[in-house]
Amino acid sequence: MWQQYSDAVLEREYSPSSVASNYPAVVAAYSAKSEAISASLVSYRVPYGASADEYSIVFPALARFRRDAIVIFIHGGYWRELSAEDSCFPAREFVERGVGFAAVNYTLAPVTNLETMVQQCANAIRAIAVAHPEAKLVIAGSSAGAHLAAMTATLDCDGELAVRVKGYVLASGVYDLRPIVRTYVNQPLHLTPESAVAVSPMFVTPRHRVRALVCWGEHETAEFKRQSRDYAQHLSDHEVPVRLLEIAGRNHFDILFDLAAPSTEFGAAVDLLIGAHAMAANRKRVIPEVRNPALELSLVRDIDISTNESRDEAVKTTAGEPMVSFEGKSNPYIDYHRNDLLLSIQHMRSEGHDEMVFILMTQCKELTFKAIHYELYNMQLRIRKDDVSGALELAPRVKRLFEYLVKTWDVLSTITTHGFNEFRNHLGVSSGQQSYIYRHVEFILGNKSKRLAAAHSNNPDVYPQLKESLNSPSLYDDVLALLHRRGVPVPEVALKRDWSQTYESNPDVEKAWLTVYADPSPDNDLYVVGEALIEIADLFSQYRWRHFTSVERILGFKPGTGGSAGVGWLKHVVEHRFFPELWSIRTVLGA
Q1: Sequence-distant (≥ 6) Cβ neighbours of residue 78 within 8 angstroms
Q2: 364-420 pLDDT, tens digit each
Q3: If you write DSSP's letter for every residue of 110-130 in order, what string do you get?
Q4: In 257, 391, 472, 547, which residue has its Cα 20 to 30 A from 169's Cα atom?
């Protein structure tokens, strides 16, 4: 520990320029870039006190992209150098992506002390919040600025402001000031070992338990790296979701050039924190392969492409009436949808009247499960890419599809016991549990079963795809990995496990979700993800319940056709819960 270091070693360890030979050029670039940006972008000052030093420079987001978020940056300089004017260089990349940027100015040492600087930064944040009442706020700081930002998170503030602060970005900070008492850094600060503790965030309980990104450059001294790791642990111990990040190739000073650059690891992490990542342009739908595509491709027919121009021309020739003349033996509607095939696969095997509706509704369910799997698969891919907003865009459709699926039992329940018995024997041993598309939906939601997958091992057109799904992470597995990337403590056993096993509840995962649910606001996208998942799980449970009650009403306790115990088997299925921790936390929430 630092207590064993000599004064000479401490001097070197707390001199970040000792491992950053480009220090003079980088600091000069801060000023030059800031001056150029201030000359080319709209900005204004927001005062927060009577002193000439008490102001922030605010760069509003470009209106056409505005996302109602502001990054408030507190500069470093070991509390005695630099200013807001030197700290405007990240502004352009933020405002062009729709995020406002503010550089905070504060009085430097030895003119004032650290307690005053902390209060000034807190006042600056409050003034910016008042001036921009709709904006969510992300507080960022570098070096001494990271210390000041961290200290503001330990202060009491009114509830509305606390809700609007969505995260902290702490780069290369000093969080335990005791070591610097013995260094040159303390000359203008006049700290004692006792007073250093009082202004060290390492020894103060954080009051804002929102997400924090604690990062540092690869080329930092050992003490600066230790300070960041220790403080991240301190935050985690106080239930603050924290992410640690060492930025490859960067040092204490040039790390800031990545702050607003989304193409870099640091900038991408910042964007995730503020929810500003514009992923939509890069989204491409993916069609999951659930069987050998050869059969489907053999059934595709070519149709002509139409355009706005061709449609305008067509309506002139038809006088606004539907077309009724087509070449060949088909028409474009049939060729596009292949409803000639769709309407030709209801082969009744008995004389029972109700068999037709049974076949049709079963086929409706199969198609609906395919639509659900398609949407869930794309949700999962977007979660993997940290495109949470894109994933959430698909959730309402998944829910509507499940609602539609539940309603299929309204029709199937019109089949009476007598009506079902008229064709039941003709089912042989066929059962809905043999549906491979249903199994894909179960697997992507986490209910894995090697035994039930094996029902398709004799089918080379289906089994390879089902086996791959069995051995791949589920949507829930990828959501837990997302929580981990966001700094929410998720146990290793949940992140690296045998994906072919049914997911089982874990008390540490429950704690992770309780951390997320500590901020049940619409701006907390992880909370919104949790609620979307529980709604999907609830609707699937409703589908299973309707299946259970409909079978009991029609068949009683007769064995199922596919070898199961019928209602007895379905009762086991009904009791299963997808995403179990999202259910179990309800007992704890608000208790």
Answers
A1: 143, 144, 185
A2: 999 999 999 999 999 999 999 888 888 988 999 999 999 999 999 999 999 999 998
A3: TTS-HHHHHHHHHHHHHHHHH
A4: 391
Task: Return d(Cα 288, Cα 377) in angstroms, integer.
Answer: 7
How many whole angstroms separate alpha carbon 405 and alpha carbon 542? 10
Query: Structure tokens of 143?
Result: 């070096």
Higher-confidence residue: 159 or 73?
Answer: 73
Confidence (pLDDT) at 255: 97
280 pLDDT above the threshold of 90 = no
The phi-psi region of residue 451 (left if phi > 0; otherwise alpha if psi is between -120 and 50; otherwise beta) is alpha
Dihedral (CA of 378, 525, 236, 126) sign: positive
User: Which token pair is 544?
Assistant: 């299973």
- Span 174-191, pLDDT tens digits: 999 999 999 999 999 999
How far is the C-alpha of 590 from the C-alpha of 347, rounded, in Å? 55
What is the sign of the dihedral through the CA atoms of 191, 251, 258 and 391?
Answer: negative
* Terminal Cα distance for the chain, rounded: 41
Please compute the mean of the pLDDT values over residues 563-568 and round it to a whole number.
61
CA–CA separation, 548 vs 149, rounded Å?
56
Sequence-distant (≥ 6) Cβ neighbours of residue 546 within 8 angstroms:
406, 409, 413
Q: Give the residue, 280 or 213, on which the prediction is more confident.
A: 213
407-411 long-range Cβ contacts below 8 angstroms, 24+ apart:
408/361, 408/364, 408/365, 408/368, 409/543, 409/546, 409/547, 409/550, 411/357, 411/361
Distance CA 151, CA 318 (A): 73
Structure letter (DSSP) for residue 210:
S
**Domains along the sequence of the chain with CATH:** 2-276 (3.40.50.1820), 354-588 (1.20.58.480)
Q: Is pLDDT above 50 for 279?
A: no
**Cα separations (Å) of 268 from 255, 277, 489?**
13, 8, 20
d(CA 465, CA 373): 13
- Residue 314 host element (H or E): helix 308-318
Q: For residue 304, with 0-12 CB atoms within 10 Å meaning exposed, 13-18 middle and 19 or more buried, which class applies?
A: exposed
All residues at 6 or more sequence positions from 372 whose CB lies less than 8 Å from its CB, including other chains: 398, 401, 402, 405, 441
Which residue, 499, 375, 380, is CA-closest to 447? 499
Backbone φ and ψ for 175, nearest 5 degrees, come out as: -115, -15
How many CB atoms neighbour CB 84 within 10 A? Answer: 23
Pair of tokens at residue 326: 């087509």
Coil, strand or helix: which one is 438? helix
Is the pLDDT at 307 greater than 50? The verdict is: yes
Q: What is the C-alpha separation between 433 and 544, in angstroms, rounded?
A: 12
